[in-house]
Design goal:
The relative contact order is 0.18. The radius of gyration is 18 Å and the shape is globular. Helix 3 crosses helix 7. It is mostly helical. The protein has eight helices and no strands.
Length: 248
């Protein structure tokens, strides 16, 4: 997940040229998008196996970070237990959503808004800059980037609500026109998604700083670890899982 100015937690601490590893990053991104799209389209056990693989890799990286900063065996076990709940809950939500929606609706209604947060944060953070949100945790995240993420996610949510109401969630209904009342639900959804995604990014950055690590892992060339790429997704889907459990 990118920081609020478009940089990942790893990039925030890396003094190398911004574009030095661009070809590797692009190639890795193409592979990740391709594999994810195929698994999403196939659904069923293919999607379950894919999500389980990602969850397992994230937990492996989580455990390495926790082991690096845990002050006692008991603390380490508690972190591992929390990680299993956090990552496992998000994974279950990803599986449940795929079973409830066709691939295209899951893509535009649940995945695309989170990606939009990254894109909006990148451009707004680079173009505007400004005050940092919490420089001691992640020195690259700015309030402007968060605002850009909220705007981008809200635009996607409005478009989904208006053109594909079957894919809309958070209780949104298809609007009759772009009035202020029609925009409340999708803007609220976009804002919530952006805040949760950024909170997940902050949380992972905090874990890495405590562990003294630049990346959660080195599995993805040019991108760091799997946790680095999925921190925002995990936060959003974990909250979605909690919502489904407690509110049906």
């Amino acid at each position: 997940m990118a920081d609020a100015d478009g940089m990942t937690g790893a990039e925030a601490d890396r003094p190398t040229s911004k574009n030095a590893d661009l070809p590797v990053r692009l190639a890795s991104a193409v592979v990740m998008v391709g594999v994810s799209s195929i698994a999403l389209w196939l659904g069923g056990w293919f999607w379950i196996a894919f999500v389980a693989l990602l969850a397992g890799l994230v937990l492996w990286e989580w455990n390495l970070l926790a082991k690096a900063f845990a002050k006692s065996p008991v603390t380490e076990v508690l972190w591992l237990f929390f990680g299993a709940i956090y990552v496992g809950g998000a994974a279950l939500a990803m599986v449940e959503v795929r079973q409830s929606y066709v691939p295209f609706f899951m893509l535009i209604g649940f995945i695309l808004p989170i990606i939009a947060v990254d894109v909006g944060a990148y451009f707004a953070g680079r173009a505007i800059g400004g005050p940092k949100i919490a420089p001691k945790i992640s020195p690259s995240k700015t309030w402007a980037g968060l605002g850009g993420g909220i705007f981008a996610a809200s635009v996607v949510a409005i478009a989904v609500q208006y053109f594909f109401p079957e894919a809309a969630h958070f209780g949104a209904v298809p609007p009759e026109g772009f009035s202020a009342a029609n925009l409340i639900a999708p803007v609220a959804a976009g804002t919530l998604i952006a805040v949760l995604a950024q909170a997940g990014d902050f949380f992972e950055s905090w874990m890495k700083r405590r562990a003294g690590a630049k990346d959660s892992g080195k599995l993805i060339p040019g991108h760091g670890g799997v946790f680095d790429r999925l921190d925002g997704f995990i936060a959003v889907f974990f909250v979605l899982a909690c919502t489904r459990i407690f509110f049906g």
